[in-house]
Amino acid sequence: MKIHHLGVAPDRLKDKRVLVVLDDVDHLMQLDAMAKETWWFGPGSRIITTTQDNKLLKAHKIDHISKVEFPSFDEAFEILICINAFGQKSPYDGFESLAWEVTQLSGKLPLELRVMGSYFKGMPKHEWTRTLPRL
Question: What is the residue extent of each domain of the chain?
Answer without folding.
Answer: 8-59, 73-134
